[in-house]
Every structure is written in C-alpha cells, then in structure tokens.
C-alpha cells in the first residue's frame, strides 16, 4: 500500500547566531550605535541605547584578522590606543565618524595596510601629533570633515 503523501525532506539546520558561524567563515563583529537623534529620557528614568563605546584598545580586535569592514560610528569614542587596529590586516573600511576623538597619534592607524576607506567626520580633532596623520594612497578615500581649532 502506498502512502497518500510523500514524506517531507529534512530541514536544514538553523543559521548559527554566534560569533563563529562556521569552520570556513570569518568571525562577525557587530557594534550597535546610538540613534542619530538624541532621545531625552523622562526624569527618574535611565535609558540605554546599545554599545556607547568610549575607548578602543589593542585587545578589542585580537581575534578578528579577517574582518574587512568595521563600523564604530556614532559612539562616544574619545580614546583609541596606539596599535588598536594592528590585528586587522584585511580591514578595508573603517567608520569612526560621529565620535569624540580629539587627538590623532602616530600609531593610531598602525597595521591598516589594506585600508581603502576611512570615514572620520564629526569628531572633535584638536591635535595631530607628529606622524599622526593618515596619508591615503591614490586608491584610498579619507573623509575627515571640518577640523576644530
């Protein structure tokens, strides 16, 4: 006797949600940014809008060498440790726009030999230490916005 319907094919496993999606796939780093329009909390309320990152250290990206885009825009970053991006040799796009960075140091962008796009607008740059500037090659784009004096 034949069944009236065909048996269903087994479903594929769900898409992994962790930092390491699979053996042949690079890790994924996600940083949520605050909304572009400030939200004022009512009196007595405490609001949280995701990762309001304030400092970037060398140890923050030690295991993300295959990362090619990093969006850290619209946080509250005021400090980037020299060599913070040294373990990101494949990084092509870096968004640091809309932060509170006041100083460019000589080693801030060390190790970014593959960088093609740096978006650095809307920061509070007041000081560029000797050898602290970013010198893009002809194939790179650098968006710095206005400088405060």
TrEMBL record:
<dbReference type="GO" id="GO:0098839">
    <property type="term" value="C:postsynaptic density membrane"/>
</dbReference>
<keyword id="KW-1133">Transmembrane helix</keyword>
<keyword id="KW-0472">Membrane</keyword>
<dbReference type="InterPro" id="IPR003591">
    <property type="entry name" value="Leu-rich_rpt_typical-subtyp"/>
</dbReference>
<dbReference type="GO" id="GO:0007409">
    <property type="term" value="P:axonogenesis"/>
</dbReference>
<dbReference type="GO" id="GO:0051965">
    <property type="term" value="P:positive regulation of synapse assembly"/>
</dbReference>
<dbReference type="InterPro" id="IPR001611">
    <property type="entry name" value="Leu-rich_rpt"/>
</dbReference>
<dbReference type="InterPro" id="IPR032675">
    <property type="entry name" value="LRR_dom_sf"/>
</dbReference>
<keyword id="KW-0732">Signal</keyword>
<protein>
    <submittedName>
        <fullName>Uncharacterized protein</fullName>
    </submittedName>
</protein>
<keyword id="KW-0433">Leucine-rich repeat</keyword>
<keyword id="KW-0677">Repeat</keyword>
<keyword id="KW-0812">Transmembrane</keyword>
<feature type="region of interest" description="Disordered">
    <location>
        <begin position="1"/>
        <end position="27"/>
    </location>
</feature>
<dbReference type="GO" id="GO:0098982">
    <property type="term" value="C:GABA-ergic synapse"/>
</dbReference>
<dbReference type="Pfam" id="PF13855">
    <property type="entry name" value="LRR_8"/>
</dbReference>
């Amino acid at each position: 006797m034949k069944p009236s319907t065909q048996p269903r094919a087994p479903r594929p496993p769900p898409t992994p949600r962790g930092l390491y999606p699979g053996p042949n796939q690079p890790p994924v780093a996600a940083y949520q940014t605050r909304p572009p329009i400030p939200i004022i909390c009512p009196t007595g309320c405490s609001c949280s809008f995701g990762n309001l990152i304030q400092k970037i250290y060398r140890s923050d990206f030690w295991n993300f060498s295959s990362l090619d885009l990093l969006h850290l825009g619209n946080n509250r970053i005021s400090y980037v440790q020299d060599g913070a991006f040294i373990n990101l040799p494949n990084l092509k796009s870096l968004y640091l726009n809309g932060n509170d960075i006041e100083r460019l140091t000589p080693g801030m962008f060390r190790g970014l030999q593959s960088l093609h796009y740096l978006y650095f607008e809307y920061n509070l740059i007041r000081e560029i230490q000797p050898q602290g500037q970013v010198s893009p090659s002809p194939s790179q784009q650098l968006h710095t916005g206005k400088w405060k004096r």
